[in-house]
Structure formats: C-alpha cells, structure tokens
Amino acid sequence: MCGIVGYCGKKNATDIIIHGLKNLEYRGYDSAGISVITKDSIKTIKSVGKLDKLEEVYKSNPIKGNVGIGHTRWATHGNVNLENAHPHLNSKNTISLVHNGVIDNYLELKEELEKEGYKFKSKTDTEVIVQLIDFYYNGNLLNAVLKTVKRLVGSYALGVVCNDNPSELIAVRNNCPLIVGFAEDGFIISSEISSIIENTNKVVYMDNKEIAQFNLNNTYKFFNYNLDEIEKEIETMDLNKDSISKNGFEHYMLKEIFEQPDAIRNLLDKRVINGKINLGESFFTAEEIKEFEKIYIIACGTAFHAGEIAKFAIQNFTGRQVQVEIASEFNYNQKFVDDKTLAIFVSQSGETADTLLALEEAKKLSAKTLAIVNAQNSTMTKQADKVMYCYCGPEISVASTKAFTTQLILLYLLALDMAEKLGTLSEDKIKSYLDELKTIPERISEILERKDNFRNIAEELKNQESVFYTGRGIDFTTAKEGALKLKEVSYIHTEAFASGELKHGSIALIDDSTKVIAIISQEHTAKKTAINLEELTARGASIYTITDFDDNTIKQNSKEVIKFARTTDFFAPLLSVIPAQLIAYYTSLARGNDVDKPRNLAKAVTVE
Ligand code: F6R
Prior knowledge:
Glutamine Phosphoribosylpyrophosphate, subunit 1, domain 1, Rossmann fold, single chain
C-alpha cells in the first residue's frame, strides 16, 4: 500500500526520506518518488519499480535540501508509470504533494478545475489535490491546504511542500495513518512507525481532521480544521531499532514465526494477572455482555481465519451463536445487527479498508464494537468502542503469522472472560483452560526446533502445480489458513477442502501426482478424517499429516506425520498452524520467491 515519508530538519532530507521509504517497502508498492526543496526550486525524482531504481536516479542526480516529501505508490487510480507516481506537483512546479488514501469526489473536483483552465498530467486523484491547493494558494500554504482538504471526500494522509515557503512542511490526516517523529535534528512524518523509529522514539499520532505545520526553525503547530491550535501529547514509544530489524534471521517471516512463543507469553502475562483474565478496566461488564443477543466477528484474510477458529471456542464456552463474516462481503449481506449486537473486528494493521467500512456500517446500526488490533493507534482503534491489542510488535512480513496466533489468544481470552461473566463455565474449568494456554509457547518452541524437517517437505512441494489442505471442523479452518499462507508466499495453487466434502466433487482432482496436507487435531473428528485420508491415498495422493494423535490409520495413510503435543481441541490451531507457516516459508524460499514481499500483495490493504 502507499506510504508517505516527509522530513523538515537539519539533515539532508533526501537521505532520510529514501531510508524511511525503504522501511515502508514491505507494505508493497510499484513506483516511488521524492520532492526536496533545494536552493533554487523543488527537485523531484521518480522511478517505476523498486526503490533501488530511485536511488540510482538520485546517485546520478544528487539532491540536497532540508525539507522534502517521499512516497511509495501502490497503483489504484491509473497505471503504474512515472506520470502517476507521486509526488504530484502543480503546473508551475512550486507545490509538491504526496498522498495516501482515496479521494471519492476527485472527478467532480477535476471537472471544476478543468473549467478554471487547469490541465492534468496523470490519472490520479492525488493530482487533483495539489491543483486545488494551487487554486487556493495566495502566499499562505497552510490556509490553501486547509481550504482544499475541506473540499475532499474520502481518506487521505498528505505531506505538502511549497517553493515559496521553503522552510515549511505541512501534514494532514483524515482516515489514513500519519505519525510525526520528533528527532533531535528535526521532524519526520510517516505513515508508519517503522520509518521513524531509527531517528527517534518520540512521536505524535495525528488524529482525523488534524493539520500540522513544521518549520526548519524547529517550531511546529497542530490545528483542527477550524484552525484552532491544538495541544498534542508527545508519546515515548516502547520500541527500538531491533523491533524492525531481522535480528539475524534471513527473512522477517521466519523471524516473526519464531517470535510467536514470546509474543504469546507476553500477551498472556499482560492479560492474565494472578490467574484471572484481565482485559482492561474499561472492558465490557457482565451486564453489558448479558445484553448481547448476537455476536459477529468481521475481518479479512488471515484475521478472518482467526475469527472462524475462535467461533468454535466462543460458542462452546458461552452458548452464544457467533456469525463470522468476510469484511468485504459484510456490506452486501443482509445484516441482523442492532444495539444488542457485539461486533468484533480483527485486524493486524487496523487500517484494512474493508474492515473499517464494515465497522462504520456496524456502528450505524448501533452495534457495540470491539477491535482486536496489533498496530497501536491505527484508525480502527480510534473508531471502535473498545480495543484489545495483540502486543506482538511490528509485523513486517506481508504474510501474517504472529499476529494470527496473538489474535487467537485474545479471542480465546475474550471467550473465557464472557463465559465467566455469563456464568457458563465454572471457575475451575476457566482455570484449566488458562493453564493450558500457558503451555502453548513451550509447545510451539518444540515445533520450531524441528524447522529443518519443514525445509525437506518444502523441497518435495516446490514443483507442484497444486497442493491441497484438508481437515474437519476447527481443523478445516486451520487448513484454510495453511492454504492461504502457502499460496500467498509460494504462488502454488492451494485450496482447503473440508474432509467430509471431498467426495462431493473435489476428489475428482486427486491422482498420483497430488500432494495433500491434512490437519487432524480434534477428538471427535479425528477418526472420520483418518478415513478420508484412506480415500485420498486410494487415489494415489501423498499426504503430509499435521496431527497430535498417535493413530495407525493416520500413520498408514501418511507419507509423513508431523506430530505436535496434544492440547485442548479448541486451542490446537495455535500449534497445528506452525508447521503450515513453516512449510509455506520454506516452499517460498525453495522457489526463489521474495518471501517477505510476495508479488501483487500489500501489507495493509487500505483500498476496498
Ligand atoms: C495473509 C495476510 C492477509 C491479511 C488481511 C487482513 O497472510 O496477511 O490476508 O490477514 O489482508 O489484514 P489486517 O489483519 O491488517 O486487517
């Protein structure tokens, strides 16, 4: 997704901005550019493709200046080319702007400006913003930007510089993240903490409809859209450079897979205090929980799978029905959401456009909303009634791993907390579940120790055209997550089949070249799934079975059995997903793919 970096300070802006953009690379982009105010003019360079290309342009054409903006673009309006790459400038080349987000009314504004004689070089919504600033500009950049943003409908984070005001950087936020870092040498703005953390851990998270003005003389001001000055608290982040380094691992994905035991341990330490669940003082009270007649979980991709898995635990622990929906589909379905509905939104980034829209919709229908999010201060955390953080640190690899397992932990704790407040589980039962959760980190570590085994399996899978996952019930939902992980990083076609559904059609695909990964971890379905394995091997399939059972039918029908320690059925996905993550990682590696930045994908999907 698009990313913004801007700088106003004593150092060379170009170096800081390019370095900052590199830390945003993992979000996914297809072109990049920077504008820096130099002695005589605004100098802009752009490139299509990776940032190395931009650096090459920069090396042959060094730009020095203290104020500038930069951008990595993930195409939405218009093709991937230099014209559409940011920054965009007015026709006099005196104002330059970078934009993250989508402007819904850009065509109307464009038509209006065209009537005034404005010409457009690109197909982007962003160029309309800079031309509108030009239209309103009469020597005061802040006022012109303010008049412009008041006309915009949509989401935006903007960085703006102007030749006539060479010591000034303007930043605005509305529904797209924008963070300001306060370094000793100056100010750095960014869509993300990862491009700030190497300069400073002192930050301000801008809120919606706030505009900021930074000056080279080390002064700054924040305003609302009425131009009232506002006080913002400078926070000190509990992060350091290591949080965004690979820490000796070859890829972020592997590092993040290995971080899971600690991430889960830390989260449990935060949320289970003296043996009691503590979701924070402001969490839903017993009275509020008793009022909920319906529970929805809404999310996308991996976060959606966490919701699907948690449904089993919430339903079983509380006796309440749970509806899990893909956020992008939620708006088209008939909704049974009202003021007696708890709507839970799960998201690593807290910026996923589809999930944010579903949240907005649920709020309109008066639901009580809860966001389970990893990225602190992200948009979702500001919009939901209650927030629970995953606290697993920045997840940089596009493929989500540690966010998934920590989302699951929070959802399990939520299920137990609700059961306690509703009186549907005894104190002893809740305690035994909490004790079981505490054993999970150690058990994940045991699987991680066997990582070379997964490298071997990856060698056997790497040339496949298709790999299928299968399982029943909870195992089917984990299978879906395994299939998603494998396809997104290896580019091998994968699908997950409910084991019982195989013979209703999909089994037609099975022959002696087929490789299947089965997940069997549930007491009440293990036998049945084992029989389904027989049906698959009878048609020639080779099966790798991820299981916590010691079962002869499973052994006889598996090319390889990947064992993990037996745990409560509900929590088994926390363990069975680990082999699936490692198989995906090593298969991607064996195929020579860009593991952390798979093609066509973006880390935070901020467009619908
Ligand atoms: C898969 C993956 C995606 C995300 C999905 C939702 O590995 O990362 O499927 O899970 O795009 O993103 P968030 O959780 O940021 O809302």
